[in-house]
Amino acid sequence: MRPFAEVLNELCNNPPDGRGKVTNVALAAAVKSRGGDIGHGYISQLRLGVKDNPTCQAIVDLADALGVHPAAFLNGRRDLHTAEQPGWRPTALSTLFEAVHPPDRGPWSPEEVAAAISSSGQFGSISASYIRELLSNTSDNPRLKHILGLADHFGADPAYFFDDDLAARVDSELTDFLALRELGVVEFVTRLAERTGDLSPQARAAAVEGFRQALEVGEGWSFPLNSRRTSADHT
């Protein structure tokens, strides 16, 4: 992802609405006129890359003052829809927790997610208690590195936390994914992929055919690799 400073500089030097270059002082004034509070000194540090971890609210305020969607700072879309007022999507994180986890276990715990993000070192540290606050909407102002770390853990586009258009597409796909997981498709594909190097073409074909038949009759499916027929085909 492009550095925050690079995106901010580009937007200040070439505002989408065609106005001239926006100075740090002018940008701070524009933020203040909209109810925000970001000093021109801090904006200067962000543009220089001295500071690189703004809060969610700072991202939203800067985007609003520059006339772009906050997702623009996260490699997402710049254009705003008419009357659109984007911000942190409070249901985004809980959706990811519910839907995105290995097929052979339940959802990740906040402790597991916090440990994974913090141990990587790439996105700084985050505590399990803070993740719980985000999930319960007790807090709604994570910093940029928190957003990037959470997105990375769940394999999501960081813009998902801000962009309703992107979220609608992703949530639709996740709904389909959850339905497939409920039917056993995800586990089937995962286990088949794990063993594909040990199976003959006949065994793989038998596994796929057994699964297809189970779906057609609407009955529970017993993994074909445990059957005598498949074992006989194993090489």
Bin the helical content: 55-70%
Shape descriptor reads elongated
Beta fraction of the residues? Answer: under 5%
The CATH topology of the largest domain turns out to be: 434 Repressor (Amino-terminal Domain)
| H/I helix tally | 12
Sequence of secondary-structure elements: HHHHHHHHHHHH
Number of domains: 3
How many β-strand runs?
0
Low-confidence stretches: 219-235
Radius of gyration: 23 Å
Full CATH superfamily name of the largest domain:
lambda repressor-like DNA-binding domains
Our measurement of the CA-to-CA distance between the termini, rounded to an integer number of angstroms, reads 45 Å
CATH architecture classification of the largest domain:
Orthogonal Bundle
The main sheet comes to:
none
What is the typical, i.e. mean, pLDDT? Answer: 84
Q: Assign the structural class, choosing from mainly alpha, mainly beta, alpha/beta, alpha+beta, or little secondary structure.
A: mainly alpha
Structure described in brief:
InterPro entries: Cro/C1-type_HTH, Lambda_DNA-bd_dom_sf. This is HTH cro/C1-type domain-containing protein. With 235 residues, the protein is mainly α.
Description:
- Residues 126-161 form the HTH cro/C1-type domain.
- GO terms for molecular function: DNA binding.
- InterPro entries: Cro/C1-type_HTH, Lambda_DNA-bd_dom_sf.
- The protein is mainly alpha-helical and 235 residues long.
- It has 3 domains: 4-74, 434 Repressor (Amino-terminal Domain), CATH 1.10.260.40; 92-180, lambda repressor-like DNA-binding domains (434 Repressor (Amino-terminal Domain)), CATH 1.10.260; 184-233, no CATH class.
- It is 56% helix and 0% strand.
- The chain contains 12 helices and no strands.
- Helix 2 (24-33) packs across helix 3, helix 2 packs across helix 4 (56-66) and helix 6 (110-120) packs across helix 7.
- The longest helix is centred in the last third of the chain and has 20 residues, at 164-183.
- The model is unreliable at 219-235 (pLDDT under 50).
